[in-house]
Amino acid sequence: MMISRVFARLKDDRGLTLTEVMIAVMLLTIVGLVFTNVMASSLLATEDLAGAARSNDEMRLVIQTIDRELRGAERICQPTPGNDGNVLEFRTRAYAGTPPPSGYRDVTYQLAADAGGNLTILQKSTDGGTTWRTVVEHVRNDILGVSLFTNQGNVATALPSQGKVITVEIWIDGDLLDNIGAQVTTTEIAGRNIWTPNAAGC
To answer: What is the Cα–Cα distance from 34 to 23, expressed in whole angstroms?
Structure first.
């Protein structure tokens, strides 16, 4: 009723009253606020989904790399059969060159602290721990109390097949303040070349 009066007055040469102008401004303000809130919510949701997609991409690349390297491993050093932890160490001939001992190279993945002291960085070394490279950030395994690596072997049976399968479970959350929770990727990798899976250490 009031809106129709406003439009009727717009056609009239007498113009609008102050009350009608205030009502029109108030309606435009309400519509503007609703539109702004909808747009802001849409942008935040888009950013959250983009962050989740980035986390999924990071996890997929990390899993693919570990899978490729571990399948060619000669021996798994950590974790030992039946145990878990945030360090995966194995011996491989996958890298070029002939570093000691006898052409093998020890590859280590471990959860490390970021600048704030939180264990959220998965890093990798291929030279016995002298130099480290960050593989992926925002790992939340330590916060959630979930080990990154589990050796599915049974040290009691010590069968040739025991100690060759590693379960990798990585939780990543790029932004703890967004509406998307930590994303998880879990896989089992079997080292096809492992010949002494139950040997202690490397």
So the answer is: 17
